[in-house]
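Re: that chain you flagged

S.,

Sorry for the slow reply, it's been a week of failed gels. I finally had a moment to sit down with the sequence you sent. For the record, here it is as I used it:
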Amino acid sequence: MISIPAKDGYKLAGKLYPAASNVEKDKVLVINSATAVDKQLYHHYATFMAKNGYHVITYDYRGIAASRPKKLRGFSASFTDWGKKDFSGVLEFTKKEFPDFKIITLGHSIGGTIIGMTEKNKEISGIINIGAQTAYYKDWAKDQKTKIYFLWHIFFPMITKLYGYFPGKKLKMLEDIPKGVIDQWHSRRKITDMNTQMKAKGIDLFYDSCNAKLLTLGVEDDPIGTEKAIKRIHDLFEASDKEMQIIKLTSVPIDKIGHFGFFSRKFKDTLWHKTLTWYDTI
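Prediction finished late last night. Pasting the structure tokens below so you have them in one place:
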């Protein structure tokens, strides 16, 4: 375990996976987690990348898992804080520890979205985003839209208002989440243009200044990260050399992947190897 200072000094819990010395490459991979996910979800993928020559850093955002304070009620955090303060700090830490290495990033869900929230993204050479979207409900899969809307925009805010945070662990729904993250995500439900919304609130975004090569991946059966949803984030990276691909279940082949399944070890020789090959070109 390592401690990584965020831009404002908040201590983030992280983990460094050193590259196998016999195949070490000149790159460091930073993995940005999904919203309510412990960095441990990415352990096997990080280990795979380390064995293939990459130094890998995983970390928990403020308020999540090992970066959670003892009391979450009253704790201030938003997903823009995760980008502006946390991810910025992680990039600074990575640059300091590996000054001669290229920085590449994998952003899962919100982890891809927050890449555009720090001007430090100019330090990144390559990005793979998986299921990165903006929580606009009309982008979700039609057959699950009502269920997801109820969870994200009725149930989550209601429970959060009662507890002062979302008690995900108590409800066996991933990790606890700070109130500010729930509130900010809830505010996204009916607004198509996140860029304009954030700027109206005085929050600067930096998607257009990022010139990293970008691969946006979607999964055919992901009800949240649909093709329409991930395209909204993909299109914001105006200066990037970019491409977008949708992973078809028949190409693996498998019956189900969903929003989190990509990081299962069963995909080591297929989907994981696909990302490894892409990162090798950076």
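What I noticed first: The mean pLDDT is 96.

Talk soon,
D.
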